[in-house]
Structure formats: C-alpha cells, structure tokens
Amino acid sequence: MRIEPISFVKKxxxxxxxxxxxxxxxxxxxxxxxxxxxxxxxxxxxxxxxxLSFGAKDESEGKTLSGDQVxxxxxxxxxxxxxxxx
Length: 86
What we know:
With 86 residues, the chain is an alpha+beta fold. Strands 1-2-3 form a three-stranded mixed beta sheet. It is built from three helices and three strands, in the order βαββαα. The N and C termini lie far apart (53 Å).
C-alpha cells in the first residue's frame, strides 16, 4: 500500500498503477484507490472469513455433525425412495 498526495493522482490519472492500493491524502482527508480486481478478491476473502467464523461458532456450540452422521441421516431420509446411496 502506497501513500500519495492528491497531486500524484491528478498527475497520473490517465495511467494509474493499481498493482497495489494507493492511499490518497488531501487536506487531512484520506481515501483509498484500488483496482476492481483487487477489491473483488478482498471482498471474496472477507466473505470466506465470515463463513469460517460461522463454522467455528457452530462447532463451539456443538451444532455440527460428523460425516457418518450426515450420511446416515441422508440414508434414513431417502432409504425408501428411488435414490440409492452406497
């Protein structure tokens, strides 16, 4: 992450180098400029971390099933149907 003054952005606006985020400061205010690809990757990483935290919470609260329990539940539910699970 680079920190640049607003004059840098004005001077390089036609050809920005967005390989990394740029922190722009102007009169004590700060904003971040980043590529849409980097933003998308960051949003996906945040979503994955949220899902992992939900899983960790469920595990700590005992709200999980083992693989065998899941398969047994599926077999019990669909045993009399046309679907067969070995």
